[in-house]
From TrEMBL:
It holds the Pfam family GUB_WAK_bind. The keyword Nucleotide-binding applies. One of its GO terms (cellular component) is membrane. It comes from Protea cynaroides. InterPro entries: Kinase-like_dom_sf, LRK10/LRL21-25-like, Prot_kinase_dom, Protein_kinase_ATP_BS, Ser/Thr_kinase_AS, WAK_assoc_C, WAK_GUB. Coiled coil: none annotated. This is Protein kinase domain-containing protein. SUPFAM superfamilies: Protein kinase-like (PK-like). Keywords: ATP-binding, Glycoprotein, Kinase, Membrane, Nucleotide-binding, Serine/threonine-protein kinase, Signal, Transferase, Transmembrane, Transmembrane helix. Residues 332-626 form the Protein kinase domain. ATP binds at K360.
Length: 634
């Protein structure tokens, strides 16, 4: 019996009950609750260039003030989303609701495209991002020239030309000998915050894109997590967040609540329904229900068939199909959670034969492109792979709106947990450098396979320690192909992308700023290099102990400084000569991989060759970017 016939049989069985229930409602219930107007009013909006606007932001032109938090008003135009801060409007580049931050840029309308005022945040709910903000200082109409031995960027513009000099300096150059004498002769000074990213804080980049290009990227602002209140909990229960009468509210489909849509005090909002309307219209209502249910059923069946056809055509022959009840059974009702990602949650499970598995349960398919874009993308990429350093797909679940992927279980967890172990020293496992070296080589071979060994080149776009899993022998396995991109031909070197992909700290510069070059397999090489350096240093990309007053520091600076001084790169308790050679080899390969210009980075095949070759044959790479490295200490 097919699904359609089964649907109509079940519907005919409940049709009399629906008719009786409708008459009962029309006769005995004089009023019924309607959808809460605040719930409808505060639905997420799209503004200008496609920016998604939701709480704590709100749009005064089309929304009420209770849809957002004071100070988060957004002005929408046809092209841009604008926000007013301390009396001035800024362009919104993007908003990260999970990180409580947004990227903004000044709307420089003057012919010079230079800032004419300092950024003021007093009285606003925002603050500058501490670890991501650098400063570019503009000095106008200076009577005394800058000494020729210093680097600076001259500003030549007719609107400010008074016969004197105007120029731009990075903040890290301030305080240099006899420089202040020149700066004190300037009539006006403007300090502009800019995003601090490898290569962005250098005069080389300033020469290439100009100060206008750097200012166009903008800078990061953050807001306090308390502003968002219980918004995540509210949205998780199906509600929409708001702020009314000086307190946070969760607007649910039926009525507002102070907590979430599953608990909290209720405010009854209802409209009286005329009995006669039910009596006259119940047949129409029933007909509409029948039509709508059938439409939903056929639509869901069509979507399911699209994915089913894809799985039959491209799915791995070794991957077994499971029902959602099978998933609940093997994970003991999703009891043991292993991790959380942007598209789903990973649980520990056990197959009937006793084999342990990791079950990735994806979020609702509506959040995955209707047909389950994340699900299809991951199956499409991983089904084309077969390599010892690529995680194996054992099965999948496609059951209605439920999507899940079943992978082999990795008992040693992720590489991130290994290199950032925060247990007490007496119980902390010793990191054997030969093991770290083998892990680095294994990951490189896995990436080499993705880039060259498959029939279709695969770009991962999210290489980081969290996505490297370790089996019982600490053999690394590349996982999480949700952001991966398939290239039609291995000859293609540049791929097109509609937006940035990856995790901050591991994303190649060209993914954000295309003046660095085209996005290609070299973008994976950059992520790999940052990860290898993190493995060697045992620290994240920014170490709080190495941040100066300006907040200007990158992990690569620390590594490069240590190479120049011949300092040890491994923890103090491990100073054996052989281990030092391994760490230095990994560092040199990592530094080559994170070169700002993609052309200067090696391919993954070359990276494997460098790792397996002799240390003496590896040349010292150039510094990946220019900065005030004299400030760094090992």
């Amino acid at each position: 019996m097919d699904h359609q016939n089964l649907f109509f049989i079940k519907f005919k069985a409940i049709l009399p009950l629906l008719i009786i229930n409708t008459i009962f409602l029309a006769t005995f219930l004089p009023e019924a609750q309607s959808a809460d107007p605040k719930f409808d009013a505060c639905k997420p909006q799209t503004c200008g260039n496609g920016t998604s606007i939701s709480y704590p932001f709100w749009i005064p032109q089309i929304q009420q003030s209770y849809c957002g938090y004071p100070g988060f008003e957004v002005n929408c135009t046809k092209e841009d989303a604008l926000i007013q801060i301390s009396g001035y409007e800024y362009l919104i580049r993007n908003i990260s609701y999970t990180d409580y931050s947004l990227m903004v840029a000044e709307d420089l309308q003057n012919d010079c495209h230079i800032p004419l005022r300092n950024v003021t945040l007093s009285g606003s709910p925002f603050r500058l991002g501490q670890s991501s903000t650098g400063y570019l200082n503009f000095y106008y109409n200076c009577t005394k020239p800058i000494p020729s031995r210093y680097q600076y960027y001259p500003i030549n513009c007719s609107s400010i030309d008074t016969g004197n000099q105007s120029f731009a300096l990075f903040e890290h150059d301030l305080g240099l000998p006899d420089l202040n004498a020149s700066l004190e002769t300037c009539i006006s000074i403007v300090t502009a915050p800019v995003v601090k990213y490898p290569g962005m804080m250098s005069y080389v980049q300033l020469e290439e894109v100009g100060y206008g290009g750097i200012m166009e990227v903008g800078f990061q602002l953050e807001w306090n997590e308390s502003v968002s209140g219980s918004c995540c909990e509210c949205q998780g229960s199906g509600g929409r967040c708001g702020f009314d009468q000086n307190e946070f509210w969760c607007f649910c489909s039926d009525q507002p609540r102070r907590g979430n849509c599953n608990s909290g005090p209720k405010i009854i909002v209802g409209k009286e329904i005329v009995k006669a309307l039910f009596l006259v219209g119940y047949a129409i209502v029933l007909g509409t229900i029948i039509w709508y249910c059938r439409k939903i059923y056929l639509n869901n069946r069509r979507k399911a068939q699209v994915v089913q056809d894809f799985l039959e055509a491209y799915g791995s022959p070794a991957a077994k199909k499971f029902s959602y009840s099978d998933i609940k059974k093997m994970t003991n009702s999703l009891r043991e959670k292993l991790g959380q990602g942007g598209y789903g949650t990973v649980f520990k499970g056990k197959l009937e034969d006793g084999h342990l598995v990791a079950v990735k349960v994806l979020n609702d398919s509506k959040g995955n492109g209707g047909n389950g874009g994340e699900f299809i993308n991951e199956v499409a990429t991983i089904s084309k792979t077969s390599h010892v350093n690529i995680v194996s797909l054992l099965g999948f679940c496609f059951d209605g709106s439920k999507r899940a992927l079943i992978y082999e279980f990795m008992p040693n967890g992720s590489l991130e947990k290994l290199i950032h172990n925060m247990e007490p020293a007496e119980t902390r496992p010793q990191l054997e450098w030969s093991r770290l070296y083998k892990i680095a080589v294994g990951i490189a071979r896995g990436l080499e396979y993705l880039h060259r060994g498959c029939s279709t080149r695969i770009l991962h776009f999210d290489i980081k320690p969290h996505n490297i899993l370790l089996d019982e022998d600490f053999c690394p396995k590349i996982s999480d192909f949700g952001l991966a991109k398939l290239c039609p031909s291995r000859k293609d070197s540049i791929v097109s992308m509609t937006g940035a992909r990856g995790t901050a700290g591991y994303i190649a510069p060209e993914v954000f700023f295309r003046t660095f070059g085209g996005v290609s397999h070299k973008s994976d090489v950059y992520s790999y290099g940052m990860m290898v350096l993190e493995m060697v240093g045992g620290r994240r990309n920014i170490d709080d102990n190495q941040i100066d007053d300006t907040g200007e520091i990158y992990f690569a600076n620390w590594i490069y400084k240590c190479i120049g001084q011949g300092e040890h790169l491994i923890p103090n308790e491990v100073q054996m000569e052989e281990h030092e050679k391994i760490s230095k080899k990994m560092v040199l390969v990592g530094m080559w991989c994170i070169q700002v210009d993609p052309v200067n980075r090696p391919s993954m095949s070359k990276a494997v060759e460098m790792l397996e070759g002799k240390l003496e044959s590896l040349p010292i790479p150039p510094t990946p970017f220019l900065s005030s490295s004299s400030r760094f200490t090992c």
